Amino acid sequence: MAALGNLVRLAPLSLDTLPFHPYLQASLERERSKSESRLSRAETAAPLETAQVVNECERSSIPPAASSSFDINGRPNLRAFVKAVLDEAVTFVDDILPATFRPSSEKHSRPAVAKVQVLKHEISGHELSRIPWLECRIPRNKPPKIDQTGEAWCARRSRHINQQAEGTATFREFNFGLRESHSEHEGEYTPEIFDTYKVLAWTISDEPSEETPDFGDYTHVTMSIFEMCHKLLFPLSTRVFPVLVITAITGLIPPHDFIVVQVPVDIQTLPQAFYSNGRNLREGDDAVKRKKPVLGYAAHGIISLLPDVLITTRRVYTSIERCVLRGDHIDWIMATSSDAKGWLPMYVGLE
User: For residue 294, which phi and psi values (nearest 5 degrees)?
Assistant: First the structure.
């Protein structure tokens, strides 16, 4: 069985893990300047103690890379990063899921005619701690206390007739509704979503160059950061989930399958964010958008937050959606992991 990866996880990605973008670079330079200022003041107060802190940070930081997967500043190359995330997601759904997930139940999801099979699997903290976080294609620091956590995964699998008819849809319709403008469309068909704020997007061409590798079998690749905003019933606060969204058609032309990956990302220090940094409190154009939200870190598929969960803690989601055309049928699978931070069993928010 394939090994677990380090990118499509519940632990949110940090800004310095992402490929270059002008907004990210400016934000990191501001944070670096603040850190240097604090360090300078600390050196004056306690030089020996500060030196120990700096040495510890150096030991735990991501090592500089000297390959084509990274730019001169040590940031992951855009194409290398995107391909690593997509490869990890495809491997998880195509290889790891069939080998480890176990059927849990079967249900109907109206108005679709097809039955939905629900499968479950739990990845232990021990398994997560064994991931070579710094040795993967795109290294990232191992999240703290990862061995004390786990990831409960739930998957929905269904097979649909490739036909434009009531209770089903064509592959072209699936592609339009789930892959193209994914976050905006999710906001349209999910009633509790009141805003899908696009924070930033990367410009990606399908054409490779001498400096950048190709995407292999991936085409029509997109990557962006959105803040997905959910309005819940009183007395719950609104929830905002910053999410890195990567979509692609997989396989050769004509497109017969596609994938959507959503990974949580921490953008609280990014000025271009709207809700994560509190800018909405001053600039929101209506009362709902000016409310102070509960900030979650999320990458989620078509899921509704539970209106009876009276919590104000962060909630975390990550998901992979994959559609494959097989003859006259479409296989649609979505694998999602969620953590309600101790208030609920991890599976409760997934079914």
Answer: -85, 125
Cα–Cα distance list, 303 to 10, 90, 216, 222 (Å): 16, 21, 31, 22
pTM of the shown model: 0.82
Strands (E), 193-328: 193-201, 218-230, 239-250, 257-264, 294-295, 297-298, 316-326
pLDDT computed for residue 20 by the predictor = 92
Q: What is the pLDDT of residue 40?
A: 63
Residue 74 has which token pair?
């040590």
Output the pLDDT for position 36: 59
Angle between helices 47-60 and 22-45 (to 10 degrees): 150
Per-residue tokens: 18: 């992402």
Euclidean distance between CA atoms 133 and 5, whole angstroms: 8
- Answer yes or no: are the C-beta atoms of 89 and 143 closer than 8 Å: no
Distance CA 218, CA 225 (A): 20
H-helix segments, the chain = 22-45, 47-60, 78-91, 97-100, 125-129, 171-174, 182-189, 280-283
Q: What is the pLDDT of residues 228-271, one digit of tens each?
A: 887 776 666 777 888 899 999 987 666 689 999 999 999 999 99
The residues that bridge with 228 in the sheet, in sequence order, are: 196, 241
H/E stretch holding 156: strand 151-161
Give per-residue burial for 282-314: e unless 16+ CB within 10 Å, then b.
Answer: eeeeeeebebebbbbbbbbbebebeeeeeeeeb
72-83 confidence digits (pLDDT tens): 777 899 999 999
Cα 165 from Cα 168, distance rounded (Å): 6
For the chain, which residues score pLDDT lower than 50?
A: 48-60, 64-66, 298-314, 340-351
